[in-house]
C-alpha cells in the first residue's frame, strides 16, 4: 500500500494521490484504505515517517564503528548526503513538492521521528566542542542550522537542478563533508552573534 502510494506521489504529484485512487490501484474498496489511514494527510504522514525512520537508522549505522566525535559527525554528514542521492524521488517528495501539504507543517504524528532526527544532529554537533569550550544552546543550534543549510544546498543542486554540470561530484561532496565538520567545530568555540540594524552584537 505504501509503495503504491509512493509511486503515485512520485510520478504524478500529491494532487493525484487520493484514498479512492489508491484503493482503485490496489483493487480494494476505499473503506479498506480508511481502516489503515484516517485521511489523506495521515497517508502522507505515513510516507514521510517511513522515510525519516529509514534515514535515522542509516545515520546510526554509519557512525557505529567510528571513533571520536569528529569522525562520527563526518560519517553522519556523508551518509545523509548519500541517503538522499540514493533516494532522489523521496527527497523531491518531501522537500521539492509544490503542494501545500509539505514539511513546513509538521503534524503531531511526524514530530517524534522528525525530532529524533534533529536531536541526533544536535547531539553529534555538540559532541564536537573543543576541549575547554562550553557552547550554549544558541551556539549549538546555530551550528546545526549552518550544517544543514550547507548540506541541503548541495542536495538541492545535485537533485533539484540536475541540469547543472557538476565538475566532480565526489570531490565536491567530500569537500563539503570536511568543511561543514570543520566549521561546526570552530563555530562551537565562537560566541553567538546577531545582526542588528547598524552593528553586530553578541547575543544575549
From TrEMBL:
The lineage of its organism: Bacteria, Pseudomonadati, Pseudomonadota, Betaproteobacteria, Burkholderiales. Keywords: DNA-binding, Transcription, Transcription regulation. Pfam families: TetR_N. This is AcrR family transcriptional regulator. PROSITE patterns: HTH_TETR_2. SUPFAM superfamilies: Homeodomain-like (SSF46689). InterPro entries: Homeodomain-like_sf (IPR009057), HTH-type_TetR-like_transc_reg (IPR050109), HTH_TetR (IPR001647). Residues 18-37 bind DNA. The keyword Chaperone does not apply. It comes from the Bacteria. Residues 1-55 form the HTH tetR-type domain.
Amino acid at each position: 500500500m505504501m509503495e503504491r502510494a509512493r509511486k503515485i506521489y512520485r510520478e504524478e504529484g500529491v494532487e493525484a494521490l487520493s484514498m479512492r485512487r489508491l484503493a482503485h490501484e490496489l483493487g480494494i474498496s476505499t473503506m479498506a484504505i480508511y481502516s489503515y489511514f484516517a485521511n489523506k494527510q495521515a497517508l502522507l504522514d505515513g510516507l514521510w515517517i517511513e522515510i525519516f525512520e529509514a534515514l535515522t537508522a542509516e545515520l546510526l549505522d554509519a557512525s557505529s564503528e567510528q571513533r571520536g566525535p569528529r569522525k562520527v559527525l563526518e560519517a553522519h554528514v556523508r551518509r545523509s548526503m548519500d541517503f538522499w542521492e540514493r533516494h532522489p524521488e523521496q527527497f523531491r517528495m518531501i522537500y521539492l513538492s509544490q503542494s501545500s501539504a509539505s514539511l513546513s507543517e509538521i503534524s503531531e504524528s511526524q514530530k517524534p521521528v522528525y525530532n529524533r532526527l534533529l536531536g541526533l544532529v544536535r547531539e553529534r554537533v555538540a559532541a564536537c566542542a573543543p576541549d575547554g569550550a562550553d557552547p550554549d544552546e544558541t551556539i549549538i543550534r546555530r551550528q546545526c542550522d549552518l550544517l544543514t543549510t550547507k548540506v541541503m544546498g548541495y542536495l538541492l543542486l545535485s537533485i533539484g537542478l540536475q541540469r547543472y554540470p557538476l565538475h566532480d561530484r565526489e570531490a565536491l561532496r567530500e569537500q563539503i563533508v570536511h568543511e561543514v565538520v570543520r566549521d561546526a567545530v570552530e563555530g562551537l568555540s565562537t560566541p553567538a552573534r546577531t545582526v542588528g540594524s547598524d552593528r553586530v552584537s553578541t547575543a544575549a
